[in-house]
Amino acid sequence: MRRAIVALLLLVGLAPLAPAAHANTPDVVPALRASAAQAAPALQASAPGAPTAARSAAALPPGSRISWQGQDWYLLGANMAWAKWGRDFGGGSGDGVSSPDSRASINDRLANAKANGVNVVRWWTFEGDAWQIERDGSGMPTGLNPAIYQDFDAALELAEANDITYVFVLFSAPSHLPQSWLNDPAQRRQLANVLGPLFARYADNPRVMSWEVFNEPDFDVWKEKVSESSMRETVREVVNSIHANSKALATVGMAMLDGLPMIKGLGLDYYQAHWYDYMQPGDWCALCTTYEDVRRKHGLDGPLVIGEFYLGSDVEAPHIRLEDFYSKGYAGAWAWSLYPESTFDKLDIDWNSVRIFAGKHDDLGPRVTAALPPSPAPPTQRLGFNSSAFAAQSRIAPGGRLPVDVKVTSTAGIRVLVDVEIYSPAGEKVHQQAFDNQSFGPGETKAFTTIFAVPPSAAPGEYTVKVGVFTPGWGKVHDWNDNAAKFTVGR
Description:
By secondary structure, the protein is of the alpha/beta class. It is 25% helix and 28% strand.
């Protein structure tokens, strides 16, 4: 069943993309996420009073916090995920983190994230084929390119300046690496050994909270790009190296909740799964369940963080989405992303909603600075639409062309798809035009025009114009006007 679902995702336009994409970048679900991410119903938080760091562990939902530097935290975070694909760590003074331009730009993004309550940043390090890992003629890993260290040092200086803690993602996907590193036990072990000095260099740095072995390896397994056993053994070796050389935590970022069983029993300190709006149905809907349900279902032995999700301004009440993850017992939630212009999907973050959420809870971290002052929720905007249509002629002969003007008014700021359809006297749809990704401000009215080319064989009689408003990409229906206008076809 899972293979069939992955195949279906590929059929809807998920062919390999340029390295500015997302997921098992550059070849998994960015296009789908970009169109489906906005299909977001207003989900109501059901949390009781917010738990705080001062409360006892027994008072917290099981698995809902992660211990770091002697405190238990809910990890409110965001994905970097990269400023420059494959160059942030190793590009050095040319185009790495330590270059003046990148350093200034990244500092600005971190400062903004922190000002709005973010404490954790998930940052990809060796994307693609991990060129920063040197190898001999046989492909055996031999060491790390020393240029990476000035970039890691620069990143950690920025973290200290902005009171940010990192989750460093080592590899963008198992299939992006030389397959001998996964399949050959000797090379697998050597890969873990080669990474050891990196872990050891920052062993005591409190800003390096976690090393993440792979991003979304379940997609590679389901698509049969790598074997589950080889992926698991690679994770096990690297996790052992993390724990042997540092105090940092180890995790893996799974694409979906039902991929979590693949990484059980590997010594991870906490689990991680991603959630986007197209995942609302099925066994991977993180907003449709709770951590406790997921823990029981998959037999998890540690906390679970939602490591990627969409929190754009076109989500209805996005601060409620944050409250929902919090109240359902997850250990954190990290929105995508700080650099939308660097990714294929261009998904950004509604920072006002992050700040509203952060101002309500004092157990968000890790952090040294004080919690944000409480922020009031924005006035509730009741979402609604009014639509109307006007046919340029009340009667038109078969074979003619009829302009139909449509007006849509939204009561709230939102992005939608506007659908215009025309039906014959027999109730058959004879014309349709959709206008996707239309951005409305509160109270704004927009006009759309479609041209109905009346077939010469069109049946005479009264035709009806219908107008629908959907979330972008044909998500859920917001409004449907079944009788926006009428006109007659006939001589």
